Amino acid sequence: MKNVLLIVMVLFFSAFTNAQNSFQNKTVKILPQSKLNITGDTNIKAFECVFDMSYLKKETQLQFIADDPSHIRFKNALLSLNTKGFDCGSRPINNDFHKLIQSDKYPHILLELLEIRLQEKGSANAVVNITIAGTRREHTFPVKFSEGDVSRIDGILLLDIRDFDLEAPKKLFGMIVVKDEIKINFNLVVQK
């Protein structure tokens, strides 16, 4: 009888542990009304490089597990931004931007979602790995979201280009200098 009880307990706990440790799959579709851009500043004026969302893969498979109701971990949740998709408004600024991020050698900027820590309703902290010009760094930043069949995820990710071993271009013999801080602004509209 003790052996039967022991076997039942082992099976119960192993089933519970396996259920807690298995990742769930969900397909999400990034809708065309989504927006993403990179903004920065020089000592003269600001610039904005807008990403053409048609360069994104429309559907992606997410794997996630909820450690508890306020903490979700992800596996293989990767957003790959083809650098050809960025338009900075003029050919010289486009050339400078592509030279800065070394797009000839590294044609993609990668954003990999690692986890979300839910805060109050509609806000969370996202932890992502960002890869620019072959250098990967982990960042945590706040996001706002609304849930439903169609969800919105908004955020601004502040980056220092020196963290990615990038050197800001200088123009006119150093009179125009790009500042080291850039922002990745996004408003993603996704359908589950």
Automatic annotation (TrEMBL):
Q: Check the UniProt entry and state the signal peptide residues, or none.
A: 1-19
Q: Which InterPro entries match?
A: Lipid/polyisoprenoid-bd_YceI (IPR007372), TTHA0802/YceI-like_sf (IPR036761)
Question: Coiled coil where?
Answer: none
Say yes or no: keyword Transferase present. no
Domain (Lipid/polyisoprenoid-binding YceI-like) spans: 60-189
Keywords of this protein's UniProt record, alphabetized? Signal
- What protein is this chain from? Lipid/polyisoprenoid-binding YceI-like domain-containing protein
Protein's organism? Salinimicrobium marinum
